[in-house]
## 1
Amino acid sequence: MSGVDKKLVRAWVRQQSGPARRAALPVVAVGCLNTLIGIGQAWCMASVIGSLLQTRGAQVLGLIASFAVLSACRALCLYFQENLAARAGIAARERLRRSVLDSVIGIGPALLRRQHSAEIAALLVDRIEVLDGYFARWLPASMTWMVFPAFVLVAVFVVDPRAALILAVCGALVPVSQAVFGIGAALASRNQFLAMVRLQARFLDRIRGIATIVLSNATDREAKALSGAADDLRKRTMKILRIAFLSSAAIDIAMVIAIIMIVLTQGHFIHIDAFAAPSIYPAPHFTETLFALFLVPEFFAPFRGLALAYQDRAHAAGAAEAMEAIENGESLPGTDDLSALAPPVLVVTVEAKALSYRWNEAAPYVFKDLDFSVSPDEILVLDGPSGAGKSTLIELLLGFIKPSAGTIQFNYRDIATLRGRDIARHLAWIGQKPVLFAGTLRENLLFARPDADEMRLQRAIEAAAIDHFLKDLPQGLDTVIGEGGFGLSGGQAQRVAIGRAYLKDAPLLLLDEPTAHLDPETEAGIIEALRRLSEGRTVILSAHSQAMKALGTKSLKLGLSASVEPCA
Ligand SMILES: Nc1ncnc2c1ncn2[C@@H]1O[C@H](COP(=O)(O)OP(=O)(O)OP(=O)(O)O)[C@@H](O)[C@H]1O
């Protein structure tokens, strides 16, 4: 693990340590009880065997009964330990998912410019899922790997100090070997995760671009590249398994050495008397030695648990790194110290004052010192050639990016002082390609306002002219559309977006070339629906087509010397 990783994990662990360690405490407490019961079991078992061998007909029923009771208690402890660990894992993953999702939503679409969507999905689903091991196994194991062996060592020391010394020496060898394997395991695990994310991103890209691949006759090439990436993942996974096997083998070797040494150093552990009637009988310290031998696996179990959980720590490092990459991003105005646009307003006047924007310090300004205002019932058309900055200005109005200089005001209030959710509450946005989620048409429409009643829904359907194609859908409003569902044409999908905007009923409407991919006839129908939607609202629209531009009441010519003109 690199220095940066270590620092990241430490910072992340510190941040998580409060609730996560608190959640791990019951697991640790039950684990302590479990170890003590294990010691008791070992004593009962050793005593039963010792007594039977030393004294014929010895009374061992009490010891056997104690062993049975302890075994039942141990089973209960194991059950509770697993249960508590699983709960701690679930709670921690829930907490993390919420916090990462908040960050993702807080940054908004700007995040997709610097991170592949597959990476974000992998973090939210896979990386956080594997953190289960970190919370359920690594945290308790790292809190107890010295404590449990110490319990065992004290118990063995009391009955057989020589065996305790052997255990201590062999036990001390384990952390050395684990440190060697651990470094390799962390690195291998990190590389494996990167290979997996790369493969996921590649798959997602290729599935999205399946038509281009087929039409470019590139299927063989792509299949080869995908199989190469899958093979890379396989090799990295095998490397992890090899390291895990070696690390476990190192503990087994230390355990076997401890057993052999205890037996060898005990001298006459069992006497074979071949002179009198040939018989085998135990040495006087037989029970104590047997007790120490039974406790050897118990002594090494926490080391094994820690070694197994080391990979979970490596996963946490990867997740911490990915979360850092997301959380370091510039957030939308969404923090609670910003004031809300309360109460909800019915009309919005938009004003830009000396507004300038450039994508970064090295890039030229997209526009500079822009001044304009749009009142309710006005439609401002953003005009200009491709690359003039129409979409950039709409992103600024949406609050997805922040001005390099100047301000945007809604009702004379700088939107930099508004919370992201308050900006969103007061506007509806329709882009070039509406997103249809996998679900029914009804769910897709109600996405904008889940609590809308049937009458409101019907009004939106009529106003957006969705009823024109509704009768052609197999199950009407309950037809499943979106990914894997019934396909809608570009114009029909755009009508769904207009229907959503009707339902949202926001005072400000932002339209970013909503008819960009439509034929003139379909465009005319959409424009009609948009004209109805625009009534009484403040509208800003970006368009290339003359028919769309004709909707405007004034136009803003974008370019470095921008100017506002009334529409003819
Ligand atoms: N994420 C980005 N990073 C850096 N530059 C960008 C980014 N997005 C857009 N640009 C640049 O900003 C400028 C304005 O782009 P924008 O998409 O706003 O233009 P547009 O007028 O909407 O174009 P079109 O009409 O083709 O959609 C362009 O020079 C573009 O290359």
Note: Residues 113, 359, 366, 384, 386-392 surround adenosine-5'-triphosphate (CB under 6 Å).
## 2
Amino acid sequence: MHSKEQISHDDYQKTAEWLMSRTKHRPQVSIICGSGLGRLADSLSCRDQFSYSEIPGFPQSTVQGHAGCLVFGELKGRSCVCMQGRFHMYEGHSLLKTTFPIRVFKLMGVQTLVVTNAAGSLADHLHPGDIMIIKDHINIPGLAGLNPLHGPNDDKFGPRFPAMSSCYDRGLRSLALEVTKQLDIAGLVQEGVYAMVGGPNFETIAEARMLHRLGVDAVGMSTVPEVVVATHCGMQVFGLSLITNKVVKSYEDSDCVNHDGVLEVGRLRSETVQQLVTEVISRMEINNNIDRTSSAV
Ligand SMILES: O=P(O)(O)O[C@H]1O[C@H](CO)[C@@H](O)[C@H]1O
Ligand SMILES: Nc1nc2[nH]cnc2c(=O)[nH]1
């Protein structure tokens, strides 16, 4: 359970330098596209793009709906890097590997992480097609001892015992709620609590009922390790769940979730998610005096 895998500061640095020597972009914001949401990268202009297979140290995406491409570009004048495809623990990657890109981004000068995901709703008020702004999370693998920060702490990135009580930036959450009014999508959007489970199977009814009683609004198999590592190294985080299905909580219910259905809702709503993310990024405050690679952490 406790992996002995280590990734050195030099390994992250080499990848950051490899990327920075191949693109002129110096991203301030990184975006991770959830299942079916890869088209978020389409809104970037002046793109430079790399397949994960050519980037030193990057794991490979194996999940349908996660293209495996890193795209640099401009979003309304903001320099961004967008992961078309994320890494999940259930693919067999260690948690350290699933979060490898986050520390690379930190070394490249990224200050803000925007995470998106597809998730199942446990809350009666969240329906397929709705968007949940993540207010907080429950790290179920983390509570059971699976955490990307396990092992020796790299003090250059952050402290041994990082606080997680305010990891989803309050200012960005209120900005997003403001933006939803202007985009006239406020009726689709609510704040809520996301829980990560290990997957790859979807929940049993007993598990769904347990999560519901614990106060979970939406459940998925990603995001939390990325947020933990980003928070540890001092990044600001904004998170969105696209609700793709209702999690079955009743033995009388014959509905059955599947990944194709998840991807389909992603495709149907990707434009709305794209608009929301674009507006939030274009209006967020950015500190432009950032050192990159060697002195970024
Ligand atoms: O969290 P993302 O990557 O959006 O994907 C979600 O959708 C997949 C299941 O359909 C799982 O990977 C789950 O985590
Ligand atoms: N665990 C989990 N992940 C999801 N991703 C999209 N929908 C779901 C779901 O219902 N459960």
Note: The radius of gyration is 18 Å.
